[in-house]
Design a protein that fits this description.
579 residues, two-stranded antiparallel sheet, 25 helices
Length: 579
C-alpha cells in the first residue's frame, strides 16, 4: 500500500535501488565492461543528484507552506503482518538534506574517478562497489524503520570493505580493512540487539511509531529499562561507525586505498554514526546519562585527534585524524542536544573533507615545483605574500585575548537569539559559541608564523597556514579600505552571520525531525568541561607558538604515535590484525 504522496519518495529511491542491484554483477563481467559500467554509474549518479535536488525543493516548498508538511512515505500497511514495521521509506526534511549531500558528493567522486582509475584492470569492479556503497547509504537515509536502516547500514559497511581492499596486493590495505571489518561487526551487533529490545517494547520498528510511543511514555511511566539499554547500544553502534576513541584506530591506517574511496569514506560514510543519533534523537534524548556519555566520548575523541593531527607529516594521515576530531566534535554536539548544529556540522565537514582528499594530490605537485624552480608556489606562496611574519603583540596579551573572545561569544549568542534560537535552552549552544569564538580568534590574528610551528610539531602546517591566508584575503577584499582592526571585526561578523543563517535554514528544513527536549544537569556539566577542554587546547597552541615550544618536544613522539592506543588494543584483542 502506498499513501497519496508516495511519488516523491518512490522517485528518489528507484535509482539507489538500481545502484545496489549492481552488487549482483560478477567482478569479471564488471571489469570486462569497465568503460560501460563507469559511464553508467556516473550518469546514473548525475540523474540521482537531479532527482534529489527536485525532492529537496519539494520538501522545502511544502515546509514553507506548512511546517508539518513536506513528508512522503511508502507504507505496506497490514499486508505483511509478520514484519515488525509497516512503513518502508520516508522522505522528510532530514532525509532530503542528506540525500542531496550524498548525491552531490557521489557524482563529483565518480567523475573524478573516471580519470583517476582510467586504464586500471579493476576499474569496473571499483565503479561497481562505488555504486553499491552510494545506493546503500542513500537508502539508509530514506529508511523509515530501524530494520531497513540496519540492513543498509551493513550493506554500506560491506561495500566500503570491498573498496578498501581494491588494491589486494597491498598488505597494509588488507590489515586496515579487516580491522575496520571487525570493529564494524561490533557496531552491527549493538544495533541488532537494540532493534530487538525496541521491538519488544514498542511492538514496531517504525521510527515515527516509536517516537510517538516514547513521547507518550514520557508523560506517563517514563522511559522503560529496555529502551534505555537500547539507547546505550545505539550510541555504541554510532561510536564504532564514526571512529570514536577507542574505535578509531582503523581510520588513519586506510592509506593504501584509492583517493576517491578516502573522499567517499571521510566525506560520507563515516558520518553515518552521527546521522543515526540525529535520526533517533527523539528516543536517545530521553536518556540523559547516555547522551552525556556520548558527549564525553566525543570530547575525548576531538581533543585526542586534534593533538595527534598536528604532529602528522603524511597529508592523508593528517586528514584522517582531522576527520576523527570532527566526528568527535559532532558527537559532542549530539550529546549536548544540539542536533541541528550537529546536522550542519555534518554537512560542512562532508563537503570540506571530500574536497580536501580529492585535492590532496596538489601538495606534492607544489612541492615538486618548489624543488625544481626554487620559487614558492601553492600554499607556501600564500604565506609568503601575507606580509610581516610576526604576531601582533595585542593578540598575545591574555586579558586582551579574553576580551576579544568574550565579545565574540556575546555576538554569537545575540545573533542566535535574533534568528529565533534559545542558546540558553541547551548547553550545545553555549559550547558552540565558545568554540566558534576561539576558532574565529585564531583566524582573526593578523599573522601566524609558520616557522614557529614547524620546529615543535604543533600548530598549523604550511598548508593550513596558506589556507588561512587565502580565506582571510578572500573575505577581506571587501574591507580593504578599512583599518586593520575594523576589517578583522567585519570579517568576524560576516562569518558568524553566515553560519547562523545557514543553521537557520537547515533547522527550518529538518525542525520537525529533530528532538527539542531540554537538557539534564549532567549535560550542562559536560558542556562546562568541554569549554575548559577547548580553552586548554587553545592555551597549548599559544604556548607552543608564542612561548617556549621546546618544552613540548618531549611529548611530541608520544602524540605522534597516537599515545600508543592502537598498540595497546592489539596486545589485548588478539582478533585484531597485526601489522
Amino acid at each position: 500500500m502506498v499513501e497519496p504522496n508516495w511519488l516523491p519518495v518512490v522517485a528518489t529511491s528507484v535509482l539507489p535501488l538500481l545502484l545496489v542491484a549492481l552488487a549482483l554483477l560478477p567482478d569479471r563481467r564488471a571489469n570486462h565492461w569497465a568503460t560501460g559500467i563507469s559511464r553508467l554509474v556516473t550518469n546514473t549518479l548525475a540523474v540521482q543528484w537531479l532527482v534529489s535536488v527536485l525532492a529537496f525543493a519539494w520538501v522545502g516548498w511544502n515546509r514553507w507552506l506548512d511546517p508539518q508538511a513536506g513528508v512522503s512515505q511508502w507504507s505496506i500497511g497490514d499486508t505483511f503482518r509478520f514484519l515488525p514495521f509497516t512503513s518502508l521509506l520516508r522522505l522528510d526534511g532530514l532525509a532530503a538534506i542528506m540525500l542531496v549531500l550524498i548525491s552531490t558528493l557521489a557524482v563529483v567522486i565518480a567523475r573524478y574517478s573516471l580519470r583517476y582509475l582510467d586504464g586500471e584492470a579493476a576499474q569496473g569492479r571499483f565503479f561497481r562497489w562505488i555504486a553499491v556503497a552510494t545506493g546503500s547509504v542513500s537508502l539508509l537515509v530514506l529508511s523509515s524503520n530501524l530494520a531497513l536502516f540496519i540492513l543498509f547500514w551493513v550493506a554500506t559497511s560491506l561495500s566500503l570493505h570491498q573498496l578498501l581492499v581494491h588494491y589486494r596486493h597491498r598488505p597494509a590495505a588488507g590489515i586496515a580493512a579487516w580491522k575496520k571489518f571487525f570493529i564494524s561487526r561490533l557496531g552491527d551487533l549493538c544495533l541488532i540487539i537494540a532493534a530487538v529490545l525496541l521491538w519488544q517494547n514498542f511492538g514496531t520498528l517504525d521510527f515515527q511509531a516509536m517516537f510517538a510511543s516514547t513521547a507518550e511514555a514520557i508523560g506517563s511511566a517514563g522511559v522503560q529499562t529496555p529502551v534505555q539499554v537500547a539507547v546505550w547500544l545505539l550510541i555504541a553502534g554510532a561510536a564504532t561507525k564514526s571512529a570514536q576513541v577507542p574505535f578509531h584506530t582503523w581510520l588513519p591506517q586506510t592509506m593504501e586505498t584509492p583517493t576517491p574511496v578516502s573522499a567517499l569514506m571521510h566525506g560520507g560514510i563515516v558520518n553515518a554514526g552521527g546521522y543515526l543519533i540525529i535520526r533517533t534523537s527523539p528516543i536517545v534524548s530521553q536518556v540523559p546519562a547516555a547522551l552525556a556519555t556520548l558527549a564525553m566520548v566525543g570530547l575525548v575523541t576531538a581533543v585526542f585527534a586534534a593533538l595527534v593531527m598536528m604532529t602528522q607529516t603524511n597529508i592523508k594521515r593528517k586528514l584522517a585524524y582531522s576527520t576523527i576530531a570532527q566526528m568527535g566534535f559532532m558527537m559532542l554536539q549530539c550529546g549536548l542536544g544540539a542536533f541541528g548544529v550537529a546536522l550542519l556540522h555534518l554537512i560542512a565537514h562532508s563537503v570540506f573533507k571530500a574536497n580536501a582528499f580529492l585535492a590532496s594530490g596538489e601538495l606534492p605537485r607544489f612541492d615538486l615545483a618548489d624543488d625544481k624552480t626554487g620559487k614558492s608556489t601553492g600554499a607556501s606562496h600564500a604565506a609568503d605574500q601575507a606580509g610581516d611574519s610576526s604576531v601582533s603583540p595585542v593578540f598575545a596579551r591574555p586579558l586582551v585575548s579574553f576580551a576579544i573572545i568574550a565579545s565574540q561569544v556575546a555576538l554569537i549568542l545575540t545573533l542566535l537569539s535574533v534568528f529565533g534560537f534559545d542558546p540558553l535552552h541547551k548547553p550545545g549552544g553555549i559550547v558552540l559559541a565558545c568554540v566558534m569564538s576561539i576558532s574565529l580568534f585564531a583566524l582573526s590574528m593578523p599573522r601566524l608564523s609558520v616557522s614557529q610551528s614547524t620546529s615543535s610539531g604543533f600548530g598549523p602546517t604550511e598548508t593550513q597556514a596558506g589556507v588561512m591566508r587565502w580565506g582571510q584575503r578572500l573575505v577581506g577584499r571587501s574591507h580593504a579600505g578599512l583599518p586593520r582592526h575594523r576589517a578583522i571585526a567585519a570579517r568576524v561578523v560576516l562569518m558568524v552571520a553566515a553560519y547562523v543563517a545557514a543553521l537557520t535554514f537547515v533547522v527550518f528544513i529538518a525542525s520537525t525531525d529533530l528532538s527539542h527536549a531540554a537538557m539534564a544537569p549532567v549535560q550542562w556539566a559536560v558542556g562546562v568541561v568541554a569549554i575548559l577542554a577547548f580553552v586548554g587546547l587553545a592555551w597549548i597552541q599559544r604556548q607552543v607558538m608564542w612561548g617556549d615550544g621546546q618544552r613540548w618536544l618531549a611529548l611530541y613522539v608520544h602524540v605522534r604515535n597516537g599515545f600508543y592506543v592502537d598498540a595497546w588494543l592489539r596486545r589485548r584483542i588478539r582478533l585484531l590484525p597485526h601489522e
